[in-house]
Amino acid sequence: MPAPPTATADEIRDVNTRYHDGAAPGYDAKWGIDYGEVGRDQVLGKVRKALGTTEIPTFGRSVEIGAGTGYFSLNLLQAGVVREAVCTDISPGMLAALEANARRLGLAVETAACDAEALPFDEQSFDLVLGHAVLHHLPDLRAAFGEFRRVLRPGATVLFAGEPSRYGDRLAAFPKRAATAVAPLWRAALRAGPAANGSADGGAANHELEGSVDVHAFTPEALSAAARAAGFTGVRVRGEELLANWFGWANRALEATADPDEVPWAWKVYAFRGYLALQKLDSRLLEPRLPPAIFYNLMLSGRRPG
Predict the structure, then answer these.
(1) Cβ-based neighbours of 282, under 8 Å, separated by 6 or more
(2) Which sign, positive or negative, has the C-alpha torsion 184, 190, 195, 201?
(3) Distance of alpha carbon 295 from alpha carbon 301, whole angstroms
(4) Cα 91 to chain center, whole Å?
(5) Which of 78, 100, 164, 179 could form a disulfide with 250 if both were Cys (CB 3.0 to 4.6 A apart)?
(6) Rounded distance, CA 306 to CA 297, Å?
């Protein structure tokens, strides 16, 4: 659900801060975020797709926008793709979770709680600006992309993944609705009780904010235009996940209705392995052949001239 059309930029930022602060403690568990081999493979695969290359270059200093609990930056640090990482987020709660993950993994990372549209960094101070599932939360994309260009060194890279496609999001609504309709039968079959309201995202009060945190769903043309308008060159947009997305959202819609402690482990294994299998099918068969607009996720890359 998008933010109300009457919401101001400050209201959108405030809601995003409060929502993500509340969601932070359970965020990794809710979304199955991993910092081991599986997580690194996922992140590296997305970076390869976004850049359109099989060989990922090494970046000296990166800054992640909306870093959340560290999924991208921490996995890229572990893989040696970035040497020095700075992680930003509007949510101090998310950054606290990220710092805890970094300590557990033995990684050094700098964090800054800030607005993506007013980054507290010097000009030309990074080799890579990146983000995952963040642009659709930003009320002023023009200002944000201007900041991304400002802090990048000449010739440096901008890369974003996991941005919702306008048409892909509409298509994903069908498996979500179907799953919600059959959820009572699914819970009965698994002998799982119903979930408390908002149990998966920080409690009932936080749950009420969920419909106001998203601002955009993109067409490939609109996402590309936002980067080009800021002066980026070599801009490319690719779609990712179709069957895997339908499968994943259907399962998430089912699981959201159940007490998470009562969902059998065998179901979780089935959902995880099924998602990975369909993700591979999407990547090998559908993504190279179908237009980006129909996929759920869009990814973008480009370079600052120079």
Answers:
(1) 240, 241, 242, 243, 244, 295
(2) negative
(3) 17
(4) 15
(5) 179
(6) 29
State which residues of the chain have pLDDT below 70: 1-5, 197-205
Q: Which residues contact 138 (CB under 8 A, 6 or more apart)?
A: 116, 117, 144, 215, 216
Q: In the chain, what's the furthest Cα-to-Cα distance? A: 61
Reported as a single tens digit per residue, the pLDDT across 56-90 is: 999 999 999 999 999 999 999 999 999 999 999 99
Residue 225, CB-side half-sphere exposure with 13 Å CA sphere:
5
Rg (CA), the chain: 19
Residue type, 188: A
Please check whether residue 80 is in contact with residue 10, taking contact to mean a CB–CB distance below 8 angstroms: no
**Rounded to an integer, what distance in angstroms lies between the CA atom of residue 306 and that of residue 302?**
12
**Structural contact between residues 64 and 82, judged by C-beta atoms closer than 8 angstroms:** no
Sequence letter at residue 33: I
**Residue-level pLDDT at 212:** 81
Residue of 97, 130, 102 lying closest to 116 (CA atoms): 130
Distance in angstroms (rounded) separating the CA atoms of residues 6 and 56: 42
How buried is 168 (Cβ within 10 angstroms: 0-12 exposed, 13-18 middle, 19+ buried)? buried
DSSP structure class, residue 285: I
CA 258 – CA 272 distance, rounded (Å) = 17
Distance between CA atoms of residues 164 and 81, nearest Å: 25
The residues, ordered by sequence, that sit 6+ positions from 285 with a Cβ below 8 Å of its Cβ are none
pTM of the model: 0.94
The pLDDT, as a whole number, for residue 208 is 74
- Distance (Å, rounded) from C-alpha 124 to C-alpha 45? 27
- Token pair belonging to 206: 């936080």
The predicted pLDDT at position 211 comes to 75
What's the rounded Cα separation, in Å, for the pair 230 and 305?
A: 11
What residue spans of 121-202 are helical by DSSP H?
141-151, 166-190
